[in-house]
Amino acid sequence: MTVVVKVRSNTDGTGLKLTLYQYQSCPFCCKVRAYLDYHGFSYDIVEVNSVWRSEIRWSKYKKVPIVVCDSDDPGTSLVSTHSSFYYCSG
Fold this sequence. Notes:
The chain is mostly beta strands. The protein has a single domain (about 5-90), classed as Glutaredoxin, CATH 3.40.30.10. It contains one helix and six strands, in the order ββαββββ. The chain has one helix spanning about 25-40; strands at about 5, 15-20, 45, 65-70, 75-80, 85-90. The strands form two sheets. A four-stranded mixed sheet has the order 1-3-2-4, covered by helices on one side. A two-stranded antiparallel ribbon has the order 5-6.
């Protein structure tokens, strides 16, 4: 996995390590980036090869966008649906 861009927000206090797997020209990926930016999340972007998709070979889901969330806090997660994201703190 090669991180292409590291997007950092000064207002992000979540402690989440988000990674977005995307195609640059994908309108759904653009929507996810806009959402993350608007809500002040920091995240890494991995550009997926549209032919080989080797960057997402680990996933059963073979479409983009894919957002992977790592957190030091086991009660914190980011849940994605087709249309939106919900930040959950438990």
